[in-house]
């Protein structure tokens, strides 16, 4: 049934392709990155290694291109079509992602959850699904309340990347997610003085750092 979803859309991607991409280590967010699937379809016949390399490269270019997004020359005309395409693919990806973690959730159910404003990142977490399975048979209104409450208690939005994440993706009492913290660290290597202030003195003690 869901297989049809792909075949009569312009994307000729098949379930096996998505599985393959997962196997190569890409996640559902990467799969819906702009142009990712297109790029994959171009290279589909190549071997795994080649595909992996090309796609990583593609993601990297996207990453660097983020700043000057407005000037991107592709994507304009087909934005609307692409929107629904992406949604469909997205929902299917979520479904497969859930299936991998052992949950068999119907597409219609995922559409329903998405209507309540839950992001894919949250839907595909074990924590959310565990909760959802206990409340899914509630009426919409009540379900909406329960979901909102669960989100208020278990997730928060990172102040930096503005992505809603599970609490466990933050260090305690931090407003910035661990992923962002790592990014920041990468961008400003630790000889930045502001950061070291609390560390008594001396540029680097190194005791807490593992040698590589
Ligand atoms: Zn963040």
From TrEMBL:
<feature type="region of interest" description="Disordered">
    <location>
        <begin position="185"/>
        <end position="212"/>
    </location>
</feature>
<protein>
    <submittedName>
        <fullName>Uncharacterized protein</fullName>
    </submittedName>
</protein>
<feature type="region of interest" description="Disordered">
    <location>
        <begin position="62"/>
        <end position="83"/>
    </location>
</feature>
């Amino acid at each position: 049934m869901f297989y049809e979803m792909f075949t009569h859309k312009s994307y000729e991607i098949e379930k096996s392709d998505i599985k393959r991409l997962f196997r190569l280590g890409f996640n559902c967010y990467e799969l819906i990155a702009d142009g990712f699937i297109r790029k994959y379809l171009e290279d589909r016949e190549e071997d795994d290694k080649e595909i992996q390399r090309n796609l990583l490269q593609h993601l990297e270019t996207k990453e660097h291109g983020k700043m000057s997004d407005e000037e991107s020359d592709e994507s304009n005309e087909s934005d609307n079509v692409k929107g629904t395409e992406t949604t469909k693919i997205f929902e299917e990806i979520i479904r497969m992602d859930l299936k991998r973690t052992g949950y068999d959730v119907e597409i219609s159910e995922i559409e329903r959850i998405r209507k309540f404003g839950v992001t894919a990142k949250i839907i595909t977490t074990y924590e959310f699904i565990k909760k959802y399975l206990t409340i899914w048979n509630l009426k919409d209104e009540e379900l909406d309340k329960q979901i909102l409450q669960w989100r208020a208690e278990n997730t928060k939005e990172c102040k930096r990347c503005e992505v809603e994440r599970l609490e466990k993706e933050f260090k305690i009492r931090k407003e910035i997610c661990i992923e962002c913290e790592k990014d920041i660290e990468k961008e400003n290597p630790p000889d930045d003085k502001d950061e070291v202030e609390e560390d008594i003195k001396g540029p680097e003690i190194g005791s807490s750092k593992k040698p590589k």
